[in-house]
Specification:
The complex is a heterodimer of chains A (271) and B (128). With 271 residues, chain A is α+β, with helices and mostly antiparallel strands. Chain A contains 7 helices and 12 strands. Chain B is built from 3 helices and 1 strand; from the N terminus they run E-H-H-H.
Chain lengths: 271, 128
């Protein structure tokens, strides 16, 4: 399982590899209690749907609020992703005894704040800015990440070209306007999904990961499809600059458009 | 159900956004100069913003694409649907902006309007 290595500080020479095919464990220490949330790895398709839904909810939510209506449930995609990925939890007691997992829709019985915190932790990936981790490499663009306490997660890319930057700008600005060009809202494509596509095109090597208990090695046939999609986004994002679409616009009663907007977003991403 | 517009292929909306962005760039400097000269007494001209935000983002992409093409930075450029019509919308917006704000014959800055007597920037007389 991918769990924060306890011995990292004491013994920095011992390098622990991030196991891509193992469950991830997040431990929440809250009010003297300790709860563990165990997640299976997220697939690329699940992450794409999450990014797409999150962007649409963000756009429509801001538009609805600007239009004087009620905001939308922007946490819904996170709740859905949590329910998809969590395989078990530990440390929760059920009144009267029994197993939490025996309850119907047991995931929803866990306090929402715990679920959101655990999901944030398991999907959080940062750039590893420590001095020893980064070196300029002549043949590659390199980024180094840290996640779940693992550091030195290295991604080597074929250098980004003007064509790549152009493709990113072109596809990330393929938005839709709903409710008219002047008064409508903008539904922006999920830029993370465009970055995932570019990652799959540009990645050449990774280091610091394992699969099947041995170091990940693309030369031995390991496929980048198993790379965590949140790591993909975090790794390639620093290599591009983004023309941000301000998702806030006036609009009203746009809920009925979610399905259509999702289809449009899929089209834009796959263009 | 409201219409779902594809911003990248809506040349009319892109042209409006491009004109407004050119106008906004002009007004930003114009308002600053006028504010300084009148010691904050003059009311700044309002910066137009009439289309959905996605249009402005797309126009920023098109401006950048145009400059990359001018620099020959995209030798294998293969335009996608909407990019050529988008670039034409930029050209039309520039033409419209030049009509609305012809360049000062002395300093080249866009004049306040086609009937302006002096240049707001260099203060040179442009019309008798």
């Amino acid at each position: 399982m991918a769990e924060e290595p306890e011995n990292r500080k004491e013994n920095p020479e011992q390098i622990k590899l991030f196991p891509l095919d193992a469950d991830r464990v997040v431990k929440l220490k809250l009010g003297g209690a300790c709860y563990a949330h165990v997640f299976r790895p997220c697939t690329e398709e699940e992450a794409r749907e999450f990014f797409r839904s999150s962007m649409i909810e963000l756009c429509l939510g801001l538009a609805a609020m600007r239009g004087g209506g009620e905001g939308r449930d922007q946490e819904a995609p996170k709740r859905a992703l949590y329910a998809q990925l969590v395989s078990r939890v530990e440390g929760y007691r059920v009144k009267g005894g029994g197993e939490l997992s025996a309850l119907p829709k047991w995931q929803e019985r866990i306090p929402l704040a715990h679920r959101m915190l655990a999901l944030d932790r398991v999907t959080q990936v940062a750039r590893d800015e420590s001095d020893e981790a980064f070196e300029i490499e002549p043949e590659y663009d390199v980024t180094v990440l840290s996640a779940l306490g693992f550091r030195g997660l290295l991604h080597r890319f074929e250098p980004v070209t003007a064509e790549d930057q152009h493709a990113f700008n072109r596809d990330s600005t393929k938005a839709k306007a709903v409710g008219g060009s002047r008064t409508g809202a903008t539904i922006a494509p999920a830029w993370q999904n465009i970055l995932i596509r570019l990652y799959n095109k540009k990645i050449r090597q990774v280091a610091g990961y394992s699969i099947g208990g041995r170091p990940f090695d693309s030369a031995q046939g390991d496929r980048f499809a198993v790379m965590d999609p949140f790591h993909k986004v975090a790794a390639i994002q620093p290599l591009f600059y983004r023309i941000a679409v301000d998702e806030s616009e006036e609009a009203s009663d746009l809920a009925a458009l979610v399905g259509e907007a999702k289809r449009a977003a899929v089209e834009a991403e796959n263009a | 159900m409201p219409e779902l517009l594809d911003i990248a292929s809506d040349a009319g909306g892109l042209r409006i956004a491009a004109e407004e962005m050119l106008e906004a760039t002009f007004l930003k400097e114009f308002n600053e100069v006028i504010r300084e000269r009148t010691q904050g007494q003059a009311k700044p001209a309002e910066i137009p913003c009439t289309v959905s935000s996605g249009y402005y983002a797309r126009v920023r992409h098109l401006f950048e694409l145009e400059s990359m093409l001018n620099m020959d930075a995209l030798p294998r450029f293969n335009p996608q649907a909407g990019e050529l019509s988008g670039l034409r919308a930029l050209a039309a917006a520039r033409d419209a902006f030049r009509v609305k704000h012809p360049p000062c014959p002395h300093c080249g800055a866009p004049l306040e309007g086609p009937g302006a007597f002096t240049c707001w920037k260099c203060r040179a007389k442009v019309k008798e």
